Amino acid sequence: MPFISMCLRGIEKIENALCYVGLLGITYLTCILVVNRYFIHYEVMWLGDFTQYLFVFMSLCAIAFTTRDDAHTSVDILSQVLLAGKPRAMRAYKIVIHILTLITLGYFHAPMLQFAARALKHPSYGTMVPWFNTSWLIVACYIMLLLCILHTAVNLVKQFGLPAPRTVAEKEAE
Q1: Residue 5 and residue 99: Cα distance in Å, rounded?
Q2: What is the pLDDT of residues 82-139, one digit of tens each?
C-alpha cells in the first residue's frame, strides 16, 4: 500500500503543478494578447491559438483534479438534503454514485482509446498555426479519462475503508 499511496501522491502533485502553472500561463498569455492587440496594435496570431489550446488542456485537467477531490462527479444537493445526519445512507449513496461513474467511464474508455490511437497515428495540425500538432488534445482527453477512472476507483475504495466522509461544508470550515 505505501507504494500505491506514494504513486497517488505523485500524481496529485503533478496535477496540482499542471493546474497552477496552466492557470498562471493562461492569465499571463491573455494579458500579453490584450496588450499586443489594444496598445501595441500588433496581434500575434499563434499566441491566441496557443492560449485557447492551453485553456482546453486546463479544462481537461480540472475534470481530473475535481474528480480526485470527489467534488465533480455528482450533484450533492439532493443527497445532502435527503441524507443529512444519516452517515450510513450517505456512504451507500456515494458507493452507488462511484460505481455508476466507473461504469460510465468504462463505457467511454474503448471509443476514447480508439480516438487517441488514431490521433497518435494521424496528426492533425492547427489552422492558424500550421506547424502546431493539435492531436495531443485528444490524447490529453484520454489521459484525463484514465485519471478520472483512477480517482473514482480510489474514492470508491475509500468509502469502504474509512469513517463516514465529511461534507463539503466541513472541508471548507477547516
Answers
A1: 21
A2: 777 887 888 888 888 889 889 998 999 999 999 889 988 888 877 666 777 778 888 8
Q: Residue 170 — very low, low, confident or very high, per pLDDT cuts 50/70/90?
A: low
User: Residue 84 and residue 29: Cα distance in Å, rounded?
Assistant: 44
Q: In angstroms, rounded to a whole number, what is the distance separating the alpha carbons of residues 140 and 116?
A: 9
Domains of the chain, residue spans:
2-173
d(CA 52, CA 168): 31
User: Which grid coordinates belong to 125?
Assistant: 495540425
Three cell numbers written together for 67: 474528480
Task: Give 41-98 pLDDT, tens digit per residue.
Answer: 887 777 887 788 888 888 878 888 787 877 765 566 777 777 778 878 888 888 888 8
Q: Which amino acid is at 63?
A: I
- Predicted pLDDT of residue 19: 82
The dihedral formed by the CA atoms of 142, 144, 145 and 148, expressed in degrees to the nearest 10: 170
Q: What is the pTM of this model?
A: 0.71
Q: How far, CA to CA in Å, does 92 sit from each of 7, 77, 131, 168?
A: 28, 16, 51, 17
Residue with cell string 489552422: 127
